[in-house]
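Usage

Read records sequentially. Each one opens with the input sequence:
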Amino acid sequence: MDRTIINLAASRLTRRAAIATAGFGGLIVAACGGDAAPAAAPTAAKPAATAAAVPATAAPAPTASKAPVKLRVIERTPSEEEIMGLRIPIFMKANPSITVDVELVPSAELITKLQTMAASDTLPDNGHSYLGNQSYHNFALGKAFIDIESYIARDKIDLKQWFPALVELMRIDGKLHGLPYKGQVLGAGFYYNIDLFEKGGVAVPTDAWTTDDLMKAAQRLTVRQGNDTSQFGYSIQTWGGENLTAHLRAFGADPYSDGGKKSTLDSPASLEAFQWYENLFQRERVMAPLADTPALFVDGKVAMVGRAYFNFKTDPILAKVGDKFKWDGAMMPKNAKTGKRGGMFAGDGNSITRNSKAPDAAWELLKFMTDKEFGVGLALQSKGSTTPGGRPDVYSDERILNHPRLPKQTQKAQLASVTEINEPASLPYNFRAPDVEGTRDPEITKITTGGAKAEIGFLKDLNARIQVILDKPRP
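and closes with the structure output:
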């Protein structure tokens, strides 16, 4: 695994040799902050220069001189590499006694890296983790992340500046072990190829669309010669993990009830949801295989991508589609029966670790990395993850709504998603999301490939296996 050390105080970039990391029972990495996520005319423009992508703001007035402190931070490359290089120098200018060294690791290896460091008590001062897959919760339970309630009280921090759903998701037995770093409604995004709609003579989606409209359009926009499909009408970016909640909620279902203590995968509404997907995948054959969605959309062979992250527009679309075709985005169409779009608030957290020798300085950095300007900068990165900061004032900022490289309608839909689809997380009460997902997801994926039928017997058997996991104590 390559790692990069950015000594921002010295403004130098060096590449270190590969190091081995031990696996600790891999937690599933949340896609919401991943690299492949995601004007008047909706055609995506070419990426702007990196320096112009992030807001340039004046540094706060420097604080009083204190004893020198060095902080170490682990972040992802390329997910947050750009924002760290641009904003951390501003923090150090305002805090001249604090030097911040940023170690970059490949995005997919962040959690494993932190697990390995926790086992050897070599954690950095500040740690980035995920809420949807409960890696944050498990680090906190293992005392890798410290309780920050005393800091919040001392500085009279107004927690309302972050989305309440994210703050509540981060509470463990009433206490916070970090602050919301990034946030979004999972599975709320919906993208479409305008050129394919025009070629097929189909009206482009509107906010009034329902799943019935989606189905009809998918049928008309699927092109097949015999058993070979050259163009799919519909596809989905997400399926399992914490993302399954969005799929089920559109049908009035939920993976769990009783505060995450009971599995409800065998409810009538869940059955209806799985049968709807089975129909599109197996009988109508209008849905692209799960693994092929990003590549097929970029190649102009998929007309619509649903249940997407809003940052899907950046790397898979903006960076790769270029001027090949016109595209735009919206919120997911409403379910024709329930009127629900489906979604779940989740995101990433940032925390102070137990190994920090300068927790007061780490607290100042934590506040800086979760403030409005950092959150806007995250959303305006020209590469990596563009999931915005987990704050209402970030989503409503004019720099986001009038993004220089993205269709205005898409940006408005992103804002609407956090107000209209304001649904909290639904996760295991005992913080065993990785165990649940490792058991459940391979089985429900069989429904999409024809390897299993969406029948009540199948779901009851799977539900019983999940309940065994939910009945276990916390890790």
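Summary fields computed downstream for this record:
- The CA atoms of residues 96 and 103 lie 20 Å apart.
- The chain has two domains: 3-185+347-420, 189-342.
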